[in-house]
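Batch manifest, entry 17 of 40.
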Amino acid sequence: MKIIIEGAGDVGSHLAKMLSHEGGDITVIDCDEGRIGQLSQAADVATVSGDLSSIETLKEAGVEDADLFIAVNPRVDQSVNIVSALLAKKLGTKRVTARISDEDYLEPENKLMFKEMGIDLLFYPEKIASEEIIDLLKHTATTDSMDFARGKLRLAVFRLDEDSPLIDMKVAEFTAAVSAADAKTQFRIVAIARHEETIIPKYDTRFKLNDHIYIIARRDGLEHLMKFIGKNNIEVNRVMILGGGRIGEMVAAKLSAQVDEVKIIDKDRQRCLELSEKLPDNVNIAFGDGRNSDFLLEESIKQYDAFVAVTGNDEANILSCVVAKKFGVERVIAEVENIEYLRLAEDMGVDAVINKKLITAGRIFKFTLSDKVRFVKYMSGTDAEVLEYTAAPGSLITKATLKETDFPKDAIIGGVIRGSDSFIAVGDTRIEAYDRVAVFALPDAVKEVDRLFK
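Output type: structure tokens
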């Protein structure tokens, strides 16, 4: 697949590295020769330096016969991304997508207008990140989660702390204990993330301290499972947010209608004034340096149920969350953009991390697969992908039961949605045409999984 990426910023560079590992023909356009020089040394990609919306530059990059064009430069006005995407489509690229920074563009009627103009997908990484944070504040027992078919099935990630009853227990023993207590609770452990390794578990796999376990179940089943794992959701009524940028503003605006109080801390006085005028009355704005623990104490951090750090500085976000945890805040969430820091943040006690690159990558990676994949998400703490497929009539996955299918060993089917029913997949399950199927797969297995569902 021939893919052109406009913009060698954080998201563009991450996409270029990821897609080049998938064997794609990748070209990156940027007006900054220094950025594309660094990228060309780090990834097997071609580069073009030039004006991002120049027809000459786009033609030099090869848009006339490209399969996918990704306009993802964060350093320019969103109109440049939109114009370059539209030009690429008119010049011959099959599918185009553009990064935006205007929430109004995502209104249904506006999305339809852009679709009619030729843009296949608009994405706003900061908005997606804010929505993830809101979800993590609703499901406080998990470090990450994902819904399938609007919640009929849910994938949840739990970290095993020192007091977890699962430590040193085998997967088979855990399954038997849950079944003995409630035979109706269906679930499947699809993966275990341990240090830098992602494990597709067997029945004799033992759980270890600090494991992240990935469980798929019906929503009501997860509530029952949490008791066995030693987790429970807390009620979040007061939230402190460090960082008044776009993500902090969107989280505060959404939370203001759901909780009793929200407080934003920012060290930019002018930004604080802007936020105080734009946000509802129950959102308090405090000017100061949230990295200072004395200042956090003055702002009554001990009285808050949750702390969210989204300053744009990974180190400040991680360390402030650690401080908040020491002050007794039960739920702390950090924006961490350096992939190498994700596991470090979790090891230091951060309950959940948000990474815009991973969130965006999942949305765009969908375009490199067949039209049978409905959704892709990269979960923090693992290099695996979570995918939702619709089984095509006559596809290989419908020809036999799962145990009779040559399914990749580095992938696993967790659950199936069939009409209004949802259930956990087992060896005797046979996928039927139009079933919606939840799949967990390591990178080297994704293309083979995709082939089975075509």
